[in-house]
Amino acid sequence: KFFVSLVASSASMLDRVFSLVLPVLVSSPSWNPTVNRMRASALDVLKDLDMQLLHSHLERIWNLPDVEAVQKRLDELYTRIRPEEEKDDEEDDSATVDMSKLTYMAFAFGHILGQGAYSTVRYAKRIQRGRSAAKWSEYAIKIIDKKFIKTQ
To answer: 89, CA 20 to 30 Å: which among 29, 53, 133, 135?
Structure first.
């Protein structure tokens, strides 16, 4: 925020920042969704600073005739670099998962919650591809030492 306010204080500096940063921000989308989210956020900041300056620079970069063409291309770029928002109301699928078919590798283990003579309980999250790690299902998993398990 400090950088943005510093840049916004000088029109010539703002123009220079736009001319240096915009070509990189509007280049081909990255394979990395995190990079694309950061690019979209940076474009949002520039748009909030000065929409007219943004459009004039994009007209030059993309060699487009008018503001409407620039806005259309900018919208297309946003749809490519902004990931589809995850639904917050998505229900946790942990009730439908067959726990007996999950392996050790299906979890990301964290800190120890408790320890006893023959086992340890660890915090874990079930890895769910395509979802943010913050939304993975949480578990407390008991890990039993093999030497205490009798064969039947």
So the answer is: 29
